Amino acid sequence: MNTTLRFLTFATLAGALTAAAGLQAEPYHGEGHLLGSPDDLSWGPVGSMGEGAEMAIIEGDLSKEAPFTMRLRLEDGYEIKPHIHPAYERVTVLSGTLHFAHGEEYDEDATQALSEGGYAIMAPGEPMFGYAEGETVFQLHGEGPWGIEYLDPADDPRN
């Protein structure tokens, strides 16, 4: 199977598989190259983040112990309430500005602006929060299983 066909098959699979937590895709196992452009991504809702946030899985199954890569797209002003993750979170901002901070209380003044090319790495169980300035797209990668736990259950749109 040539690289283009392999990618199109992968992109079709990624777009077709959905779950309550978001889109799912198979992990890439290094056979050839996985190439694509932003236009190839299939965006969908993020059940754990609610309206104003969308995700596109590039590779991986967030429920499995395996690598994953995804993109998140947030509308202008979207607030990410204080939360934690079960594994390291590695973020690179692709467009817009992600204002981000470490802490248990949401405080816009405590955030650092991460513009295009900015990055952040957060340890498991460390509380964080932030907001988007302008439509913001960032790439997140790590190891599953992945999840999010809001410090205040009232902030969780799944409740």
Task: Give an account of the 3D structure.
- The chain has 159 residues and is mainly beta.
- It is 9% helix and 42% strand.
- It is built from 1 helix and 11 strands; from the N terminus they run αβββββββββββ.
- The strands form 2 sheets. Strands 3, 4, 5, 6, 7, 8, 9, 10 and 11 form a 9-stranded antiparallel β-sheet that branches.
- The protein is globular, with a radius of gyration of 16 Å.
- The N and C termini lie far apart (44 Å).
Low-confidence stretches: 1-23
Into which percent range does the helicity of residues fall? under 10%
Largest sheet: 9 strands, antiparallel
**C-alpha Rg, in Å?**
16 Å
Order of helices and strands: HEEEEEEEEEEE
Quick synopsis:
9% of the residues lie in helices and 42% in strands. It is built from one helix and eleven strands, in the order αβββββββββββ.
Features:
mainly beta, 11 strands, single chain, 159 residues, disordered N terminus, 1 helix
Topology:
Layout: H1 3-16, E1 18-19, E2 22-23, E3 44-45, E4 53-59, E5 67-74, E6 79-84, E7 89-102, E8 112-114, E9 119-122, E10 128-143, E11 149-150
Antiparallel strand pairs: 1-2, 3-4, 4-5, 5-10, 6-10, 6-11, 7-8, 7-9, 7-10
